Amino acid sequence: MREMSFMRRRSASTFSTSWWTTQRLRSCWPTSSWRWPSTTPCGTTTNKCSGSRNSPWKPIATTPTVTSWSEAPRRCTTSPSRWPCFCRMWSGGTRSYLLNPFTVLSCVAKSTCGLNNAVVSLFILATVKGNALLSAIFLALATYQSIYPLTLCAAALLYLMQRQFIPINAWRLSFWWFVAQYAFMYVGSLLVMVGLSFFLLGSWDFLPAVYGFILSVPDVTPNIGLFWYFFAEMFEHFRLFFLCVFQINNFIYTVPLSIKLKEHPVFLIFMQLAINAIFKSYPTVGDVSLYMAFLPVWSHLNRFLRNVFLVSCAMLACSALFPVLWHLWIYAGSANSNFYYATTLIFNLAQILLVCDYFYAFLRREHHLVHGLYPKRKDGSEATLVLK
């Protein structure tokens, strides 16, 4: 025991990622019954070096080990009396959503966006709780209301597979079996809802009236999105091509983000919600408030953000200019659509900068967890991180 204790102290003083560095970086430090994986000489984040049998990095038998960063929030919430700060952040997210001015505006406007947000929130809750059936049902209900929540399916699959310790490997039969089960529950629930709609209405006219309307964008009424002005000025023979280009933005980022964030499906849900709020055909301020409610959950990334002041000023200025320019354009007649659309472009650009900034901060923090807060070059000088 003395030799093992000495080897641990020597290893902790040798490598740059010390216990104190990891504790400062990871704000959601679990209770004493769980231990985060340590950095090993092989550069991995497991408790022992898989390539060496005589490695001093041995797991402690009395302390269970979290083998993945993404499963730590789930494991440390198994005991209600030992909830870490991660769980308290969800209550902060609730207050952030309810007190958000965008949420208040959508309620004042009597928008149905609140119902869509409620269904998506129930889907997230069922997924985090590990209930695959309810997760598939609420995802089908959200897709039934709008097509874009379909992109959340990948994040739900990743989280549920990690919850049930199913390896995320396309060559494993268990992987495809779980995907088939979830797809069957999701498609079955969606078909039941569509069938009930046909039974109540007596025709299939609701399909082009709902989904066809969302995809073809026939109404170019001004909103906070990117579609209306562009397609109002578009020549008719170019419309189909640019319609496909604009709509594919909601779905094309799902695959690369799922590959990059396969160990962090909750953050993947946040990214997909933000992308849908930016690139959907008819966005509202209620969609913006939904993904902004996740920002308190990622408060530990604030120290790595780079464009907070710029994004905050842009969004505040655009939020104030929207009603002013609308009044000058529609009622006073002293402005035109270019002023309003310019404000829309700046508002969406600020959202894109916000999402990219959080993505950069998340990747940088994960890098620091492995290599330490102050990485060094081979010659001993301080290294500079560059996101490629």
Describe this structure in words.
The protein is mainly α. The chain has three domains: 2-75, no CATH class; 100-293, no CATH class; 305-371. 61% of the residues lie in helices and 0% in strands. It is built from 17 helices and no strands. Helix 8 runs antiparallel to helix 14. The model is unreliable at 1-86 (pLDDT under 50).
What's this entry about, in short?
This protein has 388 residues and is mainly alpha-helical.
Number of separate structural domains: 3
| Global shape | globular
Rg calculated over all Cα atoms:
24 Å
How would you characterize the largest beta sheet?
Answer: none
Q: Helicity range of the residues? A: 55-70%
**What is the average per-residue confidence, as pLDDT, rounded to a whole number?**
80
Question: pLDDT below 50 for ≥5 consecutive residues: which ranges?
Answer: 1-86
Keywords:
about 400 residues; mainly alpha; 3 domains; 17 helices; disordered N terminus
Furnish the topology, listing elements before pairings.
Blueprint: H1 2-14, H2 19-25, H3 72-75, H4 85-98, H5 101-108, H6 113-129, H7 132-145, H8 153-163, H9 173-201, H10 206-216, H11 227-232, H12 239-252, H13 254-260, H14 265-279, H15 285-292, H16 308-332, H17 337-371
